[in-house]
Specification:
Blueprint (H helix, E strand, L loop, with lengths): L2 H29 L2 E7 L5 H11 L6 E7 L4 H7 L5 E5 L8 H10 L7 E5 L16 E7 L6 H4 L1 H6 L2 E5 L11 H11 L4 E4 L8 H20 L1
Parallel strand pairs: 1-4, 1-5, 2-3, 2-4, 5-6, 6-7
Bound molecules: magnesium ion and zinc ion.
Zinc ion (ZN) binds next to loops.
Length: about 230
Amino acid sequence: MSQTRLVAIEQDILAKNDSFAAVNRQLFAAKGVFVLNLMSSPGSGKTTLLTRTLTDLKGRFPVAVIEGDQQTSFDADRIRATGTPAIQVNTGKGCHLDAQMVTQAVGRLPVADESVLFIENVGNLVCPAGFDLGEAHKVVVLSVTEGEDKPLKYPAMFASADLLIVNKVDLLPHLTFDVARMIDYARRLKPSLEVIELSATGGQGLDRWYAWIEAGLAKAKGARKG
Ligand code: MG
Ligand code: ZN
């Protein structure tokens, strides 16, 4: 296949994705749903952060989860164990969620008005960055057991995110990871990037994350009424 033909196919895929993303975004706005697209490498602790968040915030507002993985429903099972409605989307050979998968999942999931919807993307720092799902924010999770140069290696991911969560900070005393340097690398790509340092297992920093979610939900509700 020629290079021109490949580029044309890629543009078609992204244009189709954007039209589904627009439909999703319109639905979420009408319902006052605050939607976060969580992205990371495999093993950053996304699902652990999510289950801890769902448990700690239980009863404060309605929540639903879309779990993206290539195979298995292990993560959705962990989410459902917290009592939260969850849909597992298996992408098979695909390495990211696209907006149409989210449209279909939302049709099968009870997404309440004025609620929070977490979309846990497939663990991959490359192509999830290129696919708008109709979310309010892309959130990238990086744990301190990974390389601090990841923002430089995966620039599109860090440039597309509005929030960077630095996870597993309770392990820092045992590591040489330079948090300030990693944040500096990330903000070279996205100067307005917000950063929250936390530990999903130790509990440090979770209050800031919860306050950030509640502020976003309040904004989504306000926009709906306005
Ligand atoms: Mg997971
Ligand atoms: Zn992909």
